[in-house]
Amino acid sequence: MNHQEVAQYWNGNAEAWTQLARAGYDVYRDHFNTPAFFQMLPDVIGLSGLDIGCGEGHNTRLLAQRGAKVTAVDVAEVFITHAKASEAEKPLGITYQIASAVELPFADGTFDFATGFMSFMDIPEIDLVLAGAFRVLKPGGFLQFSICHPCFDTPHRRNLRDANHVTYAIEVGDYFRNMDGEVTEWLFGAAPAELKASLPKFKTPRFTRTISQWLNLIVAAGFTIERVEEPRASDEAVRACPDLQDTQVVAYFLHFRVRKS
What we know:
This protein is α/β, with parallel strands linked by helices and 261 residues long. It has one domain: Vaccinia Virus protein VP39 (Rossmann fold), CATH 3.40.50.150. Helix content is 33%, strand content 29%. The protein contains 8 helices and 11 strands. It has helices at 3-22, 27-40, 58-65, 77-89, 126-136, 193-197, 211-220, 235-240; strands at 48-52, 69-74, 95-98, 111-117, 137-148, 156-161, 167-173, 180-186, 202-207, 223-229, 253-260. The strands form 3 sheets. The protein has a 7-stranded mixed sheet with strand order 3-2-1-4-5-11-10, sandwiched between helices. A two-stranded antiparallel ribbon has the order 6-7. A two-stranded antiparallel sheet has the order 8-9.
């Protein structure tokens, strides 16, 4: 499967995804993963940034609110349509366009920084994505991206819960088997059953890689690794959103900040 085939799946997912996410049912993003990403992000006031795989633009808008001049791309035209509508309703100076992360339509050395919010693990040609991000960054620019944690988002995965429905372990297996486009069907677990019943399930091709593969891809692209984080929800966050309890058992997400020397 290549990025063009993947694009067809995400364009098909985009309408339901946007509806559910904007209704507040992407709780891991809103209450945990995105706040952790921004806690790690350096000051971007006055900098030019590229958001790669922006989806419907939620995180892109938060990035622009940090004072950056943001350009954002996504391969799914339905996502970009929703993102542009939000920009028209509340302008933040964001430029959105349909483009693949594999074929970034920008000149060398265009941006001060780039971001990828939970998008890179969904792209089969990730080596080309990292090389492209390196190319469009200015010397000294950085790339920060988040992915599902390779150690705990494996081909076999099961959430183990006690009698009180509290997660006590995550069972994983087949870590070394790279999934290459196997499609899974799902919806946000926090969405109510009646809403789920009215919407088509997301169909998402999965591409799994080991930690060492990710590290070697980053190095091969020419980047220097600057910071790595494995976010863990605080007790306060879990009290506010009990769905996050399982993120205290294992690391669900992995965040990288790498720099073009």
